[in-house]
Structures are given as structure tokens and as C-alpha cells.
Write a structure and sequence with these properties.
globular; 12 helices; two-stranded antiparallel sheet; 71% helix; ABC transporter involved in vitamin B12 uptake, BtuC
Length: 336
């Protein structure tokens, strides 16, 4: 019965989205061709997909990491430091810088959990706030502020590091995110490491009895999760803003938690969920161009929250069981 209700709820959302798009097109508010709209949707969905994949890896390992937001910020920061310099191979170096920065931040949170018993939920949240202040300093008074010194932003990245194109009707950044989703799917569902990781997340006592190296695998999972978010931050900066701003992201890292949960932590479903949120945000952005509507600030967040609440209502029993199993974890320190 709940499956039928879920199908009906999802169908209703699709119908509402279709009505909105048809209404926009019929009123002439959607002046761009549909190809441009598709590119905008995929460009909007790309950072959500990266952050949701990061959350998926961490949650499947049984760790409540919400550090994707800070890891994306620090990834964008590291990518900017490289991409504003004229060096050979600047584009792959910027990717690598963002990836390594996100991974380093996540490893720090993981070590706090493993060595000091600091809950990863708390450490990743506090690290997010620290990174926000670090980025603000770097573009306001630090070495990354533009040379002219007039605006609180970095210099534009060099031409060779820009990723603002599209492959057909798909943004380049989303192509990278799709490749990351495929990699996460293979890692979690077609590798021995993924089997051990899912076993540790779904039944830690059984995984311990089986002799799985839970501590080591969780460290690797944290590393992978941080690398995904950091790479997402780097790719988004190189593809969209192309310069570091005091606030390069607007909660995409936190929204990735909702996307991952809506997709039930399945990489293939995460792609669909990220596209759904991308359609919603892009459609609302188009609606904002009509002054007669006068949509209030934060309307898109309210709409996204409504989607998540609907999912929680439909899937509450399974979520309660999943979180309850996580609370029953053995607090004894993992054996590496």
C-alpha cells in the first residue's frame, strides 16, 4: 500500500512540475530554447549530485557525516589557488587540488572520531563553520583577493581552467558528476570493499564477528566521501562562478543529505533525485523572472523541504528502523 502511495505521490509531483513548465512556456516567460533549460537543469544538479554521493558513501558506512558543505567550500578554495595561476596542466591540477582538500578535511573529522571519540555529526558541522570563515578571510583580506582590491572575490580563473561548456545538452560539470556516480556504484555494489562497508553500516556487530577491518574501511570511506565533495566544489567553481566568492555555495552540501535520503542511498537513484531537485530549482528561477509573481526569497527551499517532508511521511518506518540500528552501534573503538 505504501508503495502505491509513493508512486502516486511521485506522479503527482511530476504532474505539478509539468504544469509549472507548461505554464511558464505558455506565458512566454521561458524565452530560451528547451536545450538551454536542460543545460541549466544539469548544471544545477551537478553540485547536488556530488554532495549526495559524498553523503551516500559516508552513510552507507554507518557514519553521520554532514561535512559535504565545508568540503565543497574547501575544494573550491584549493581549486581557485591553482586555477588562477598560469601553469601547464592547470585544469587537472585544479581538480586534484579540490579533491585532495576535501579528502584532507574529511580525514581530520574521521581521526577525531576514531582517536578521540568525537561524533562525526558534530565535528563535520563545526568544520563547516571553520571553512566558511577561512574562505571569507581568503577573499576579503587574504592572498586570494583580487589584485585590484575593489571587490571581495578572487581574480577570475585562467582560460585554460574553465569548464563552462556542454556535451550536447548536458553541462560538462554534470558529466563529471555522472562519472562519479558510476564510480560510487561500482565501489559500493561491485567490490569487496563495498561489501565490507555496507556490512559495517547495516550490521556492525556481525561485521566485527566476520573479522572485517571496520576502522580502516571507515577511514577510507571518509576519505572517498571528502574527495567527492571536494571535487564537486572544484568542478562547480571551474564550470559556473569561475572565481571564488565569499559564499561560493548556497547550502548544496546540506541539501545533498536530503537528496541522498530521498534516493535511499542508492547511487543510481541519487542521479534521478538530483535531477529532480535541479528541475525544481531551475523552474523556480525561471518563474522569478516574472515580476507579477513576486516569489518570496527562499521559496525554492520551501518547495524542496516540502518534497523531503513528503518522502519522510511515506518512508518514516524504514528511516526509524535505520537510525535505530545506527544508535545501537557498539561504542567501543573500532579495530583497524
Amino acid at each position: 500500500m505504501r508503495r502505491l502511495v509513493g508512486i502516486g505521490f511521485g506522479g503527482a509531483l511530476c504532474v505539478v512540475a509539468l504544469i509549472v513548465l507548461v505554464h511558464v512556456a505558455g506565458d512566454g516567460r521561458f524565452d530560451a530554447p528547451w536545450q538551454v533549460f536542460v543545460v541549466d537543469v544539469t548544471r544545477t544538479a551537478a553540485p547536488l549530485l556530488f554532495s549526495a554521493l559524498s553523503v551516500t558513501v559516508a552513510f552507507r558506512a554507518g557514519m553521520f557525516s554532514i561535512g559535504a558543505e565545508g568540503q565543497m567550500w574547501v575544494g573550491a578554495l584549493a581549486a581557485t589557488a591553482v586555477a588562477t595561476c598560469t601553469v601547464p596542466g592547470v585544469l587537472p591540477l585544479a581538480w586534484l587540488a579540490g579533491l585532495c582538500a576535501g579528502a584532507a578535511l574529511s580525514v581530520f573529522a574521521c581521526e577525531l572520531r576514531e582517536r578521540r571519540g568525537v561524533p562525526e555529526l558534530l565535528s563535520t558541522l563545526l568544520l563547516n563553520f571553520m571553512v566558511v570563515q577561512l574562505v571569507a578571510y581568503m577573499v576579503e583580506r587574504g592572498p586570494l583577493r583580487e589584485r585590484a582590491g575593489q571587490l571581495t572575490q578572487s581574480d577570475p580563473i585562467v582560460e585554460a581552467a574553465r569548464m563552462d561548456g556542454a556535451v550536447g545538452f548536458v553541462a560538462v560539470s554534470f558529466v563529471f558528476a555522472l562519472a562519479a556516480a558510476w564510480g560510487v556504484h561500482v565501489l559500493l555494489h561491485h567490490s569487496a570493499f563495498g561489501l565490507r562497508l555496507r556490512a559495517a553500516g547495516e550490521g556492525e556487530p556481525a561485521a566485527r564477528l566476520a573479522g572485517f577491518p571496520i576502522g580502516r574501511d571507515r577511514r577510507i570511506a571518509f576519505l572517498v566521501a571528502g574527495a567527492l565533495a571536494g571535487l564537486g566544489g572544484a568542478v562547480e567553481l571551474l564550470a559556473t562562478t569561475q572565481r571564488l566568492l565569499p559564499q561560493p555555495f548556497d547550502g548544496e552540501g546540506y541539501l545533498g543529505v536530503a537528496v541522498a535520503l530521498v534516493a535511499r542511498l542508492r547511487p543510481a537513484r541519487v542521479v534521478v533525485a538530483a535531477l529532480g531537485f535541479g528541475v525544481l530549482e531551475t523552474a523556480i528561477a525561471v518563474l522569478r523572472t516574472d515580476p507579477d509573481l513576486a516569489l518570496p526569497d527562499g521559496f525554492e527551499r520551501v518547495a524542496e523541504a516540502a518534497l523531503v517532508v513528503g518522502f519522510l511521511i511515506l518512508d518514516a518506518p524504514k528511516l526509524r528502523a535505520w537510525f535505530a540500528s545506527r544508535r545501537r552501534r557498539d561504542p567501543v573503538e573500532d579495530v583497524a
